Amino acid sequence: MKKKYILIILIIFGVQCNIHSQEEGKIFTIYLVRHSEKDLSSNNSADPSLTKCGKQRSENLSVFLKDVPLDAIYSTDYNRTKNTALPTATSKDIKVTEYDALELKSFSKLLVDREQNALVIGHSNTTGVLAGLLIGKEIGAFDLNIYNRIYQVVMYNKQGRLHLLNTVSDCID
Predict the structure, then answer these.
(1) For position 80, what pLDDT does the model report?
(2) C-alpha–C-alpha distance, residues 96 and 112, integer Å
(3) Got the DSSP string for 124-147?
(4) Are 126 and 104 in contact (CB under 8 A)?
(5) Domain extents for the chain?
(6) Residue 166, pLDDT above cutoff 50
(7) For residue 133, which phi and psi values (nearest 5 degrees)?
(8) 97, 74 in Cβ contact below 8 A?
(9) Statement: residue 14 has pLDDT above 60
(10) Model confidence at 42, in pLDDT bands (50, 70, 90)?
(11) Is 150 helix (H, G, I), strand (E, B) or coil?
């Protein structure tokens, strides 16, 4: 009978230790996406809007993230990034917060410290780099013709694990 009580105490203690260890580290996920296709024929070449396909891709991103809990959405201060973020922000009733693409190291630290499920819209020369900073590995820019990547970084105890997802779009401008 004494062994039974000791076993019960150990089980209770073990469960409490397990609960405590889960509280020590929060799991959260950061999705990093390059803006959708930009209109290269635009008169505003420095800050073009999205093409028809770009708008469709942005809507598709919103559908992809429909059941994903998000606490924050970040975008650089460009039409193409803000308009890529807009469908998801609207569907989730989240305000888009701007970040400075020239300050990726400090922004990556902010993302880790805030421990939020977040969507980050960036550029071909920043999205992979930021994903690399979050996981502690060097990842460079990618080709200007690539729009279908979603970097999913799952964070736990300030350590990130990267999953590269690819989307399919059959839109033709």
Answers:
(1) 97
(2) 18
(3) TTTHHHHHHHHHTS------TT--
(4) yes
(5) 26-166
(6) yes
(7) -60, -40
(8) yes
(9) no
(10) confident
(11) strand
Return the CATH architecture of domain 26-166: 3-Layer(aba) Sandwich (3.40)
Structure tokens at 2: 């004494």
* The amino acid at 123: H
Structure tokens at 60: 């598709």
Three-class secondary structure of residue 82 per DSSP: helix
Report residue 153 as tokens.
């970084």
pLDDT tens sequence across 108-120: 999 999 999 999 9
- CA 98-104-107 angle, to 5 degrees, is 55
Residue 120 in contact with residue 130, Cβ under 8 Å? Answer: yes
For position 22, what pLDDT does the model report? 44
Phi-psi region of 109 (alpha: psi -120 to 50; beta: other; left: phi over 0): alpha
- Sign, CA dihedral 110-116-122-125, equals positive
How far apart are alpha carbons 110 and 57 in whole angstroms?
Answer: 28
Q: Which two tokens stand for residue 58?
A: 């942005």
As to burial, measured by CB atoms within 10 angstroms (0-12 exposed, 13-18 middle, 19+ buried), residue 38 is buried
Query: pTM for the complete prediction?
Result: 0.84
